Amino acid sequence: MSSFRTLTLLYGLTLLLGAFLLFLVQPLSGKMILPWFGGSSAVWTTCLLFFQGMLLLGYLYAHALLRWLSPRGQSVLHLLLALVALGMLPLSIANDWKPSGDEDPLRHILSLLTANIALPYLLLAANSPLLQAWSVRHGQTQPYRLFALSNAGSLLALLAYPLLLEPWLTLPQQYSLWSALFALYLLLCAFLAILAGRLPQHRPAAMQLTAVRWSQAGLWLALSMAPSLLLLALTRSLTTDIAPVPLLWIVPLALYLLSFILAFDHPRWYKRTLFFPLLFPAFWVLLHLPVARNGFLALPATLLLLLLAATVLFMSCHGELARLRPAPEHLTLFYLLIALGGALGGLTAAVLAPTLFNDAYELPIAVVFCTFLAALVILPQRTFSAPWVQKTLYGGILLTLMVAVGQSVADWRIKQDKVTVLQRNFYGILSVYDSPEQGVRKLLHGRIIHGVQLLEAAKSHLPTTYYSQNSGVGRLLTAKGEQGPLRVGLVGLGIASLAAYGRSGDLYRFYELDPDLVPLARNRFSHLRQSPAQQEMVLGDARLQLERETANRFDVLVLDAFTGDAIPVHLLTLEALALYGQHLQEDGLLAVHVSNRYLELSWVVAAAARHLGWQARFFDDPGDATIFAVRSKWVVLARQSAPFAHDRLSVGMPIAVPAGFRPWDDHFAPLLSVLLR
What we know:
The protein is α/β, with parallel strands linked by helices. It is about 55% helix and about 10% strand. It has 20 helices and eleven strands. The chain is globular and about 80 Å long. The two termini are about 50 Å apart.
């Protein structure tokens, strides 16, 4: 009995460690490559697509291993792959994979992840079904509880990374820790593989594929695909429209995993009598509650409602999936179809939706899919005292679907009447709106305003929003311009509002990540056409491009990439600021736009300036509604304090950085340290 308990404990520990490493490598690898693609939130979605695909391959490997090889053959093959993976340590992604700017980002991310972490991830992905099947041979009678334990390890990794690892360890230290734990995992797994290889073959006739009905397999597939699609669609929506914090994707993913844990741990956690009545309220919240600011709920309440509603749909689908789980002899096939469903959901959200849709239609599609799939699985299992009750429920579901689709179509037609341009690519959704009542034309990325131009001809040249004459950057450009023609570098194009400050003899060199933004700025807005300054456009991530260029000798360099979307952290590190210094004249000035509802980025800039021996001043302009200028916050850096004696710049204030605040560098940049509370 004691040896069985010891073996059970060993299986549990190995499963827990493998699942922990499986999900820990996701933020690790994502954080490593995020700077190479401009900090776009789409990088996270692409990473999730890769991980879901590799999870499918891992489950397929486990299923094939158990189905076609003897216990000894399983042990030998798995040990050989473990030795190869051990030889790949320590885990890292070489700088040779940095993009040049011409690559398709989706393909390049998938290629570099495949080349660098595919084999270790494959072994970890096979961890759960393989060890559960081996545990059944050793006498385990409840292998699906081990699946819940595996998901608990995954959840633990997601919570530990932003709270324990990222704030205290540099990126190389994180990779070293992961590699050491992975080596320990391989040793434990090898020991269990050897033990399993000594057991007799056990393959009952019920294990044949034909024993599983196609309708049953189809339900497994659909009930795993629907919440996966919802997870990625909601993550894209949250990271684009609510919080420009890349690691926010951890929250919905943690809830997604929690629903797996509860559904497969014990039937008491999922009750149809509780979740079925909540299905349609959750449906309406996710379908109709605005993700961005709304007039009746504060942001925290909006976020809480959305996440609770998503959890209801996750639990409903995964709860029904757990109810439909087969006998242990079909365990690997069951997990294989779950992984296939997850991968199909990821493929739909990350590849098909951006290709087929010009707007974020995958979120309402996912909400409808989850809700009505769960309802149609639950209803036939319920018994009612009178037949008319079931008929009424079916009629109500059909009516709800018709109303929801009708309202969505109506909302779409209203939006089409207002929008003049609507397009989508890897980096997000761009739209241009004309607002005659306000007299402006707006450019939006998702729901974040990226520029506003006044339509009145006499005022169309005026810079608006964050770039007015009294903003930090406006004061800087006018003050510096008194010295003569300027060489100005600008990171972030928007509608090119800052081109309004350009004069004959000036050079304005723009660095823009999204290639689709350039024709919009040129053709739909007039700042570039009206500016007499010479203009140059450089496509690709600004830091990577500057690393390849010789010294530009800019008089002014403007960083304007932090107001919304995922924050490109790599543009704010010590190494980045040192690079900017190489491209500035000795008396050149660096302006950093730090307006942000969620992050106090002025601390980051000021701490880096202090470390490099630069002077930093903070400019907070309240805005001017008459010219559509909004409140803006800028930090201006100079090597000496002399520039701040100018009348236009003397209003800048010193920045108080919290005691002990550590400057960010390329290996240490915890966003939680600057999260506004």
